[in-house]
């Protein structure tokens, strides 16, 4: 087997030694590379159309906010139907949405209103794809390799975060936004077509209906997470931290131009640096291959992200900003990988889709809320001081999380 020698590289190698895991993560890397090209393209397009930080934030909000409504429902759906088919349908919708943006823009019919509406469609489809796709991971690798598989999943996202901007910057600068969004359409189409090749155990591929309705299952997911002594506090901590800190990464174009007087090339460089930092941090987390100490690291990483973000907005020196961006990406990657690993490990199999949908809601809706608030504040107060205020608030949240740490460790850092 071509990848047989990967076992020598530890936990990450064990995860990738499985044929279906390689296929799954290869498709993930392809689609997420297209996603990052798309996100940079539409953010830059919104900035070119409006020259308004508010509208750039609104585009991010329309992409991410549907998770508030649809992610919990999507988790309940993923726990009762064929997760491969649900993933295929969701990814195909994203491919069509990108193709629609490209076609409307090429023909001169795309307005900021239409862009917002199409991003709502994309955000809704992504809300269903996330719990369905991630719920398949326990069926791709043995349980002992699940932490490494979760880390590998995040690594694919962050490798794409590096590759996507590296493609997007020159592509947008030389050919415009249209080819960039069509590239995303092709990437998601390719990822969709690989899904039928996965050999997933039937117990992991198809959720088991509870006998109750979708709404009842959705509410049961909230109750389960809220009553769990570790999952509830950890998700609450991650949600508030995401609102306060992740908005900066969602509306980078105004920061690029207003703080550093750079164009699309500067946006691509900053996003790539975030991805590079996330990639190396993810490799380190994957190499750990253990749960012990994960809660402590997750909380400490959130503190580091706040401090590095303060550094990012406080400097007017672009190379220093690039370094801070890389460190922001690294700390965000450590936090995100560990939170997802902990909640996936601690969740009952019957609740996994719903718990992961709550995590998906946090990673999508909370940054959207932060981006909209930061973009709105930026129109009146500038970008620097509202960002610093949000980071200081995030450090207070870190203090709350640290006080809850013993209870979270006791319930999350054991094999379920």
From TrEMBL:
UniProt cross-references to PANTHER family, sorted A to Z: INTEGRAL MEMBRANE EFFLUX PROTEIN-RELATED, STAPHYLOFERRIN A TRANSPORTER
Annotated protein name in UniProt: MFS transporter
Lineage: superkingdom: Bacteria
Predominant place of localization: membrane
Native organism: Belnapia arida
Matches recorded under InterPro entries: MFS_trans_sf (IPR036259), TM_effector (IPR010290)
Keyword annotations of the record: Cell membrane, Membrane, Transmembrane, Transmembrane helix, Transport
Pfam families: MFS_3
Membrane topology: Multi-pass membrane protein
């Amino acid at each position: 087997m071509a990848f047989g020698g990967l076992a020598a590289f530890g936990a990450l190698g064990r995860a990738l030694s499985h044929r279906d895991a390689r296929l799954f993560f290869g498709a993930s890397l392809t689609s997420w590379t297209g996603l990052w090209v798309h996100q940079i393209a539409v953010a830059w397009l919104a900035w070119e159309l409006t020259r308004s930080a508010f509208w750039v934030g609104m585009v991010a909000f329309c992409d991410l906010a549907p998770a508030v409504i649809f992610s919990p429902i999507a988790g309940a759906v993923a726990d009762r139907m064929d997760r491969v088919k649900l993933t295929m349908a969701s990814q195909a919708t994203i491919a069509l949405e990108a193709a629609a943006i490209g076609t409307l823009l090429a023909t001169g019919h795309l307005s900021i209103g239409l862009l917002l509406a199409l991003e709502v469609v994309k955000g809704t489809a992504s809300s269903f794809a996330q719990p369905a796709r991630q719920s398949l991971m326990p069926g791709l690798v043995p349980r002992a390799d699940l932490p490494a598989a979760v880390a590998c999943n995040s690594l694919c996202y962050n490798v794409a975060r590096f590759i996507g901007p590296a493609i997007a910057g020159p592509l947008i600068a030389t050919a415009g936004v249209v080819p960039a969004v069509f590239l995303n359409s092709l990437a998601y189409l390719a990822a969709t077509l690989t899904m039928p090749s996965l050999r997933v155990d039937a117990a992991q591929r198809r959720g088991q209906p509870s006998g109750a309705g979708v709404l009842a299952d959705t509410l049961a997911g909230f109750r389960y997470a809220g009553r769990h002594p570790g999952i509830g506090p950890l998700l609450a901590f991650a949600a508030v931290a995401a609102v306060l800190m992740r908005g900066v990464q969602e509306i980078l174009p105004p920061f690029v131009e207003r703080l550093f007087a750079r164009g699309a090339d500067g946006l691509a460089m900053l996003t790539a640096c975030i991805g590079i930092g996330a990639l190396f941090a993810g490799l380190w987390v994957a190499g750990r291959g253990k749960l012990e100490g994960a809660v402590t690291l997750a909380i400490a990483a959130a503190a580091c992200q706040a401090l590095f973000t303060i550094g990012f907005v406080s400097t007017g020196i672009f190379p220093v900003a690039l370094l801070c961006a890389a460190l922001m990406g690294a700390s965000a990657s450590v936090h995100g990988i560990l939170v997802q690993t902990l909640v996936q490990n601690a969740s009952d199999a019957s609740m996994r889709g719903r718990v992961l949908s709550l995590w998906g809601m946090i990673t999508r809706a909370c940054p959207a809320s932060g981006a909209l608030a930061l973009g709105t504040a930026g129109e009146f107060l500038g970008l620097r001081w509202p960002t610093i205020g949000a980071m200081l608030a995030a450090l207070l949240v870190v203090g709350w999380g640290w006080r809850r740490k013993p209870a979270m460790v006791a319930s999350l850092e054991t094999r379920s």
